[in-house]
Amino acid sequence: MSIPVVWSPATRLHVPEHEVWVGVPTPGTELPERVDAILAALEAHPLHEATPHDDELLEAVHDGELLAFLEGAATAWAAGPYDELVGQDRVVPYVFATPAMLAGMEPTPATALHAQAGQYCYDTMTLVGPGTWEAARAAVDVALTAVDLVLAGERTAYALCRPPGHHVTPSGYGGSCYLNNAAVAAEALRAAGHDRVGIVDIDAHHGNGTQAVFWGRGDVLYGSVHVDPAAGWFPHLFGHAGETGTGAGAGTTRNLPLPEGTGDGRWAEAVTDLAQWVAGAGCTALVVSLGVDAAGDDPESPLQVTGDGFRDAGQALGGLGLPSVLVQEGGYRLATMGSLVASYLHGHAG
User: Fold this and answer.
1) Bridge partners for 26 per DSSP
2) What is the 3 state secondary structure string of 183-204?
């Protein structure tokens, strides 16, 4: 069975060039070439170009102030002195309004752009440059077009979203993510009449942003299998087994952190566990945050999953028979990531 693949050429426009990790500029890994590496591996599947959507569902997931900042940040930065003074042509936060700094006081909003950035971005790795907003907004259209296909009768649609999105909270971005594509897809399925939607995140890193969006809600479940953040992995502060939601969302979050070096067997068992959890909770639609950076050769993960493991994960989630939207998240080794996505789609299609 083939699965329709949705993409947009505009997702290539974001060019991170570099990141800043522990104060050191390092080459970016979330590259535009990821789009073409995946497309080349999915030639057997029908291709659909994304169609534009309005901002209603995006605004249901993210605060308007965050959206406004991201839309205008690159232009404002280019108009400032940063490139001339320090040779930095990308938006990088300089100071962060942490609880330790605020100390219970009410802050005055920052006026300098490099300080404003720290009100929305929570790390120094996620730079904003020319084309970042356009690519991120196009990725949202990719996800929503995949939802449209599923609502029109496709059992499954794959959204080739880039940049990824599962680290974006309602009001903050980070982790090489700018807008939360999976959360918007789940919101769209809810708006279309699905009473309960399940999100299963198989990216190597916990999707703290998606968890935050639905933390207090009972209509969207979020389950994630990922490398244990307590072992020193991003996002460090979230993704632990004890995080289960609050209020109406109590019990609708489930995290299955795994030790470094975990391979196919234990990893696929955890994915199967989450699939059964979603089914048992009465979800009528599924969103999969399809990161393939859990692969053993990926530069961003210490897990050891192979193509067989991703195929098994696809079988477990596709076997639920639910209308499914597969949203691309991480995966950074250009030589192999496309084949890993293909392996997952093969399994999901059954």
Assistant:
1) 19
2) HHHHHHHHHCCCCCEEEEECCC
Domain assignment present for 136: yes
Chain position carrying tokens 């093969």:
346
Instruction: Find the helix or strand (DSSP H, E) in which 328 lies.
Output: strand 324-328
Beta pairing, strands 18-21 & 24-27: antiparallel
Q: 240-281 pLDDT, tens per residue?
A: 999 999 999 999 999 999 999 999 999 999 999 999 999 999
Query: In which domain, by residue range, is 278 found?
Result: 5-50+132-349
Q: Could you give the C-alpha distances from 5 to 11, 50, 99, in angstroms and in order?
A: 14, 10, 43
Query: In DSSP terms, which residues pair with 305 in a beta bridge?
Result: 295
Tokens of 348: 């999901």
What is the spatial distance between Cα 224 and Cα 282, in angstroms, rounded to a whole number? 18
Catalytic residue among 48, 53, 62, 167: 167
The dihedrals phi and psi of 199, each to the nearest 5 degrees, come to -115, 125
Question: How many CB atoms are located within 10 Å of the residue 82 CB?
Answer: 17
Residue 142 sits in a domain of what CATH number? Answer: 3.40.800.20
Q: What is the model's pTM?
A: 0.98
Classify strands 24-27 and 197-201 as parallel, antiparallel or unpaired.
unpaired
Helix 132-151 vs helix 64-79: crossing angle, to nearest 10: 150
Residue 69 lies in a domain: no
**pLDDT tens track for 275-323:** 999 999 999 999 999 999 999 999 998 999 999 999 999 999 999 999 9
CA distance 335 to 8: 21
Q: In the annotation, is 167 catalytic?
A: yes
Task: Extract the tokens encoding 74.
Answer: 């690159």
Burial of 175 (0-12, 13-18, 19+ CB in 10 A): buried
Token pair 């990531």 is found at 337
